[in-house]
């Protein structure tokens, strides 16, 4: 369907080499986009590129450390060099250090904020001129249920994910005139490397998610393909500054 067609579009997906990022990259690739897979781990990047090429997409592996400004700028420049343009940026790379606030060090705090929030600011700022040049763009940033709720082990992570929602609103407000739409996705509890340890560190989490989510299951990376295609395509041209839960209904009931 033309509204959702991404043929000729170029997408950068940070953390696109696994988990939710790869689920999103697969969706965008299947809709016709070329994908820059951007992560630190070269072997994971290469494997993701293979998987995307197997779907018939063009893809390139680009090493990046999203905590570093120069690295974010180089990522955008290398994507434009490889594919000729940049239309879509998915700010997905993320991490968590689960500790009580009184035990969290400043270094822990900075690590989480730099990886999850400052990275989205830096990559969006770096991508802006290329999007203006392309006549518009789509910025999709990954928040969390911790954009809405708090948790004892979540001071840094929750602050970063709350910040993603506010950053999204400000980018949308600033760049609407440039035909750039910025939106956030708030995932519920999704089976990835990041949550393997959470299931162990947070007693009862597994059962709580299944009991509370209306879908009665954890999410899978594939559950993010549809929302990503919507937010990356012309179908969402009048949707901007929003934060959309993709949580199997976790946030709609106690
Ligand atoms: P994964 O651990 O599978 O993926 C994290 C990704 O981020 C990896 O691809 C990793 O690549 C990349 N990454 C981490 N640090 C950096 C860095 N400094 N520079 C570049 N890339 C980096 O976890 P998820 O797929 O679960 O997480 C993806 C996003 O979804 C995160 O923002 C997370 O907070 C969010 N989220 C996840 C939820 C879940 O339940 N799983 C729930 C809510 C939100 P590499 O290893 O190559 O560095």
Write structural notes for this entry.
It is a single chain. This protein has eight helices and seven strands, in the order E-H-E-H-E-H-E-H-E-H-E-H-H-H-E. It is globular and about 50 Å long. It has one domain: Rossmann fold (3-Layer(aba) Sandwich), CATH 3.40.50.720. Helices cover 45% and strands 15% of the residues.
Quick recap of the structure?
45% of the residues lie in helices and 15% in strands. With 254 residues, it is of the alpha/beta class.
Main β sheet profile:
7 strands, parallel
Q: Which geometry do the CA atoms define?
A: globular
* Helix coverage percent: 40-55%
Per the CATH scheme, the topology name is Rossmann fold
Any idea how many domains? 1
Termini separation comes to 38 Å
What characteristics describe this protein?
254 residues; alpha/beta; Rossmann fold; seven-stranded parallel sheet; 8 helices; 7 strands; binds NADPH dihydro-nicotinamide-adenine-dinucleotide phosphate
